[in-house]
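Hello,

I think I submitted the EPU job twice by accident. Can you confirm which output corresponds to this input? Input:
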Amino acid sequence: MVIEHNVSLQPFNTFGIDAKAKQYCNITNTTVLSEILKTKNDQSFFILGGGSNMLLTKDIEALVLHINLKGIEVVNETDDSVFVKAMAGENWHQFVLWCLKHNYGGIENLSLIPGNVGTSPIQNIGAYGVELKDVFESCEAINIKNQDSRIFYKDDCGFDYRESVFKQELKGKYIITSVTFKLSKHHHKLHTAYGAIKQQLQDLQINNPTIKDVSNAVIAIRQSKLPDPKDIGNSGSFFKNPVISKRQFNKLQANFPDVPSYIVSDSMVKVPAGWLIERAGFKGKRFTDYGVHNKQALVLVNHGNAKGIDIYNLSQLIQKTIKRIFDISIETEVNII
Ligand code: EPU
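Support: Only one job matched these inputs. Its output is below.
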């Protein structure tokens, strides 16, 4: 095991923040991972995956374990389904492309989401009508304290909207090393009801879309409104869409009749945070090197050399302003470090 010192994490977080790791170790196999957890058990660890859902506001004192475990394999098959195991360090979108190449269906709507396979269950990534939990079979994880290996099945994971047990009671306790997905081999069940996907397929005059067509539609939609972290640093949606009571929603609608909404249950309604932030006047606002994306107000951006703390302060200003104008609290989706 090689431990490097004062390593810049700029290439390893999609916000492109230049924070330093005091100690850094690139992990490419699980044996080394167990060994380092055991021999350095007097230390605290910072687990780094694809770096796509974090805002670094300071240097990291803990030992950074950069999970770069690689490999994709079919581990089981039935007449209709295939079980594919991908190691945690595989890039999420490359994994989606691998599945499309093999005509395995289920994650095409999750095309182009930044990050790695291993972090996908942590916040139950989701887009365009599909969530990770819909295709999740199990994941393997190592207990940081005693290095025991454990398999988590879907019911163990407490999946919810951008939530799982790994963000709650098991936060910081396990390192996910691989994820196994249950995908379809044929008769793929397509999810094309999302307005923008329907429109995109219509524009291209595709009547009987394949999973590749759906993926291409999603890629086109994402590219039209979400910034590519290679060009502009960002972490996708910075905030979660707030879920409020019907009573609170009726009050909001009385003041803002054009507010969009999605019914969550008989008593709860989800409101797009992007709409609230745009309505509060933040969309496209730029402060020196940081600001709010001009095509999707839910995304905060680093235009160059922004400091994490500046972006954090902006996020707080946005939260306070939304509270003042709409009396709604919006939570961050991104982990603030
Ligand atoms: N809207 C605005 N202004 C904006 C952005 C959005 O008014 O600047 C309103 C519009 O009414 C629009 C609605 O919000 O119709 C919904 O916008 P969009 O379809 O872009 O979806 P979202 O709710 O803003 C969520 C996810 C995205 C995911 C899309 C598509 C969350 C926090 N975000 O965004 O996820 O791609 O749906 O399914 O749930 C991510 O997590 O990083 C991410 C990009």
